[in-house]
Amino acid sequence: MIRPVTVVTGGSRGIGAATCLRLAAEGHDVVVGYARDAEAAGTVADGVRKAGGRAVTVRADTSVEADVARLFETAEEQLGPVTGLVNNAGVTGPLGRLADTDPADLRRVVDVNLLGTLLCSRRAAQLMAARRSGVIVNISSAAATLGSPGDYVHYAATKAAVDTLTLGLAKELGPDGIRVNAVAPGIIDTEMHAAMGDPDRARRAAATIPLRRPGQAEEIAAAVAWLMSPDASYATGTVLRVSGGR
Ligand code: NAP
Q1: CA gap 120, 113 in Å, rounded
Q2: Ligand 1 touching residue 106 (CB < 6 A)
Q3: Considering just the CA atoms, what is the radius of gyration of the chain in Å?
Q4: pTM exceeds 0.70
Q5: What's the domain count of the chain?
Q6: Helix (H) or strand (E) holding 135
Q7: In whole angstroms, what is the distance from residue 199 CA to residue 201 CA?
Q8: Model pLDDT for residues 14-38, shown as the tens digit of each residue
Q9: Ligand 1 atom, smallest distance to 16 CA
Q10: What is the domain range of residue 96?
Q11: Domain of 219: which CATH number?
Q12: Position 244 in a domain
């Protein structure tokens, strides 16, 4: 059987890293995209190889068109035709009210979370439509429907846009044999909270979550892996919420 070749953006840490390892365990060869942390990406690639998959790391800022082109070019050169894409790279900027948020942070969040997802999806759609098959999974957020007042309404808005993109692109690409879905995580225990200025945020949020704990990256990776798999062959255009009930 031909092994799937899947590009995971932001595969060096957190949910992306867990997704790379889970997909490798399920028989994928994996392209580990990353922005800055080459060492972390290399460690994930080693993990993929240990699980029996082929792996390549590519530094690519998903908000930059030339980087995205190089990401897919390197993937195809080194591992063969790309069959899957996980649009995972995402940023929030510092926590705070919109009125207090630096416009440069607003721009960055829109650039990475929305434009980056669009650019990667566009390139994947070009390659996959020509082959009449492929799978895309977008990492959204429960924030898309909660709004996240006081924390990051701009981030929540980009994730709502990702949900709409998921719906529209699924309809657009369905006739080409391409499925497009999203996973909307709740609060997951990753380094993202420290990056937004509150390392203890996930633990403190436990009381507000019906399952009374933050999620683990592996629990999101499991949902991504299902949507990527043939078991989800009739699922497209759906947003799977994995949020402990939040
Ligand atoms: P994380 O631990 O901060 O990891 C972020 C990853 O994205 C890293 O691999 C980072 O690469 C990469 N990245 C950042 N900016 C990038 C860019 N411009 N281009 C390419 N890669 C970039 O984050 P996480 O918590 O795993 O979050 C992953 C996704 O889940 C994001 O889309 C996030 O919005 C979403 N999400 C997270 C939570 C949560 O509670 N953690 C909840 C809902 C949704 P480097 O290592 O090179 O910096």
Answers
A1: 11
A2: no
A3: 17
A4: yes
A5: 1
A6: strand 134-139
A7: 6
A8: 999 999 999 999 999 999 999 999 9
A9: 26
A10: 5-239
A11: 3.40.50.720
A12: no
